[in-house]
From TrEMBL:
Keywords: Repeat, Signal
Pfam families named in the record: LRR_1 (PF00560)
Database matches in InterPro entries: Leu-rich_rpt, LRR_dom_sf
The protein, known as: Leucine-rich repeat-containing N-terminal plant-type domain-containing protein
Keyword Signal found: yes
């Protein structure tokens, strides 16, 4: 998104040297999420875009150790609205995503979730997303929990999800 790119450019201008190169992709993906999901309206957005604060310290973001690998996004019950951006697929180390109880009316589940090969838990309960479950979710060999209840999904569960041998819990 244009706002995410502008935010990254502003961060690099105001705080040269603050963001390590490996954080550029993380920053861009999280900024895309913030703007696509109406971040200014969130109930909790502590430290998001505060000058000099590493994205790994932002509310709802958990990174592995002190590095730049985002492994968890928990923004559940936080008044997320709008859309889940395709840039979510850039956070390749994600193990858990919890956007439960959000308001993505008119939005869909991006197929880019299928790029997150480390994803173990995807909780989109009560997000009001529409469309169909992307068949790309079958690429998630480590997926253990998929919760998509209380949404506006159409069609059937893709048979390809049967390839997710780790999937122990699925709620639709």
């Amino acid at each position: 998104s244009e706002l995410a790119l502008a935010s990254l450019a502003l961060e690099l201008t105001n705080n040269p040297g603050h963001l390590k190169v490996e954080l550029y992709t993380v920053y861009l993906a999280l900024a895309s999420l913030y703007y696509a999901a109406q971040g200014p309206l969130w109930q909790k957005d502590y430290y998001w875009f505060v000058d000099g604060v590493n994205p790994c310290e932002w509310y709802g973001v958990t990174c592995e150790g002190t590095g730049s690998d985002v492994i968890r996004l928990d923004l559940s019950q936080n008044n997320l609205q709008g859309n889940i951006p395709t840039e979510i697929g850039r956070l390749t180390m994600l193990e858990e995503v919890n956007f439960a109880i959000s308001n993505f009316v008119g939005g869909t589940i991006p197929s880019e979730f299928g790029l997150l090969s480390n994803l173990e838990t995807l909780d989109l309960e009560g997000c009001f997303v529409g469309g169909v479950l992307p068949t790309e979710l079958a690429n998630l060999a480590k997926l253990e929990t998929l919760v998509v209840t209380r949404n506006n999904l159409e069609g059937t569960i893709p048979t390809e999800l049967g390839l997710c041998t780790s999937l122990g819990k699925m709620s639709r």
